[in-house]
Amino acid sequence: LQAKLAQQVSEAITHNKEVDALIKTNLMNLQQPSLADNLDDLKSMLISGLEELVQGQKVLRENLLNTQNYLKEVEQDRRALQEALGKARKSKLVDGLTGLPNRGVFIKQLDAEVARARRYGFDLAVALMALDGLSALAGKFGSAAGDLVIQYYATQVLSQFRGYDMAARSGADEFAVLFPNTQREGALRAVKKAQKSLRGAVVQYRGQDLAVPGFSCALTLYSPGETPDTLMRRAQFGMDQIRGGPNKLLAV
Fold it and tell me: Which of 37, 137, 171, 219 makes an SS bond possible with 251, Cβ 3.0 to 4.6 Å?
């Protein structure tokens, strides 16, 4: 609507300029001294009226230009608001450090996957991963070093899983992964492969190599009829048992 209105205002400005030019031309013709004397009064009336029209056209043109500028500002504000709202919506769904879905999005997707598992009899596995010794690393080198390690996980480790597996950041040093339509052996292989990929992995921090810590993982398999909440509680119970690692893997 704003774009259409702005276009109409622009067209009106163009039309206004054309009418203004026509009026000025006629006004100049009426001001020529060659006209007969008995037309003096008529000339005066016409001149006066045309001068008023010119002035009115000037005011109208200024108003239209002001309106056009106003519409441009409104459009700019609208775009800025859309961008701000988009960022606000995104910030509620995505972890700011890693760009991964946050825990709320993970739980919502878990609900959907459990519903599908019930409906179609599919297998479903859930993995909770805790980075071993991340707090100690951050305490020694600073929180920025810890953030760098978390980002490494997001871009290099979790990206190894299949495209339709869902990885999310579920806590300060935790990630959660959904393995839809995946049996126990397949999920175990995927987790072990990710653990193996971290052997010898380093990140550059302030000119030095920092060893990327491994992770411990609690792998939970969906049981028919189980609720998403119960499934997550079992996974969290397993994680609490092995937290601190190193590189422990527990299937519960």
Answer: 219
> Whats the size of the chain, residue-wise?
252
What backbone torsions phi and psi does residue 174 show, to the nearest 5 degrees?
-125, 145
- Looking at this protein, which amino acid is placed at residue 98? T
In whole angstroms, give the CA distance from residue 69 to residue 87: 27
Peptide bond into 33 cis (omega under 30): no
Whether 132 contacts 90, CB under 8 Å: no
pLDDT for position 75 = 79
Six-digit token string for 228: 């998403």
Tens digit of pLDDT for each residue in 193-231? 999 999 999 999 999 999 999 999 999 999 999 999 999
For 238, the 3-state DSSP assignment is: helix
Determine the Cα angle at 219 with ends 153 and 101, to 5°: 45
Could you tell me whether strands 208-211 and 124-131 are parallel, antiparallel, or unpaired per DSSP bridges? unpaired
Task: Identify the band that residue 10 occupies on the pLDDT scale cut at 50, 70 and 90.
Answer: confident
pTM exceeds 0.90, yes or no: no
d(CA 239, CA 227): 19
* Partners of 128 in beta bridges: 176, 218
Pairing of strands 174-180, 202-205: unpaired
Which residues contact residue 145 at a Cβ distance below 8 angstroms, ignoring those fewer than 6 apart? Answer: 137, 138, 203, 205, 210
CA gap 98, 148 in Å, rounded:
10
Confidence of residue 29 (pLDDT cuts 50, 70, 90): low
Tell me how far CA of residue 145 lies from CA of 38, 94, 195, 237, in angstroms: 96, 21, 20, 29
